[in-house]
Design brief:
Layout: H1 10-35, H2 62-79, H3 86-113, E1 129-134, E2 144-150, E3 153-161, E4 172-179, E5 182-187
Parallel strand pairs: 3-5
Antiparallel strand pairs: 1-2, 1-4, 2-3, 4-5
């Protein structure tokens, strides 16, 4: 099958074998990634020892090893006849392999920018402005309601105020803090 490799120099053969093996494993990883199998890694061979980190990118992982070998092998094959100095060729191949890891890192960062957490959390309302829906009694003596918009959706939430006067319907308010799951607001 690989008869054409038999007449090549050992370094050139090494580049070819590395490129072919890395390409095959990369293809398997890609298929597994898109089919949801094993999160895209053939094995969980992260050298950090902590496989439950929140980091989306681990420098020493099987996937990055394959990315490096893919760039290293194919650049060695591509530049073998054009770069005469073998040490320079290996150095260029290592740089391109590291570049593949860097490109993968940039790609992961761009993909993570596409994810958006639209979970409603009251803590995110502090400092935001809203409008009084039901009059809010003065001096924390009772609850009213405000409507406030977060991430394009409107929420009707209970509110209280520390101000000396009632805040009537239609007035604008700003959330200052949260007390026992009730928004404490002040008039704007």
């Amino acid at each position: 099958m690989f008869e054409f490799l038999q007449n090549l120099e050992p370094l050139h053969q090494g580049f070819w074998y590395t490129a072919i093996a890395a390409s095959f494993i990369f293809l398997i990883q890609t298929v597994l990634t898109f089919t949801g199998g094993s999160h895209g890694d053939v094995t969980h061979a992260d050298f950090s020892g902590d496989s439950h980190t929140d980091s989306p990118f681990q420098l020493f992982s099987f996937r990055n090893l394959i990315n490096f070998l893919l760039g290293f092998g194919w650049s060695g094959v591509a530049f073998y006849s054009s770069i005469g100095n073998k040490l320079l060729l290996i150095f260029v191949a290592v740089l391109i392999g590291a570049g593949f890891i860097f490109l993968f890192f940039i790609l992961i960062l761009q993909i993570l920018k596409l994810t958006e957490d639209n979970t409603f959390k009251q803590e995110n309302l502090i400092g935001r402005a809203g409008e009084v829906y039901l009059t809010i009694p003065a001096n924390m003596s009772g609850k009213g309601k405000i409507t406030i918009s977060v991430n394009g959706t409107s929420h009707e939430l209970p509110a209280m105020t520390e101000e000396k006067e009632n805040i009537p319907s239609g007035d604008s308010v700003r959330v200052t803090y949260i007390y026992d799951k009730i928004l404490v607001v002040s008039k704007i």
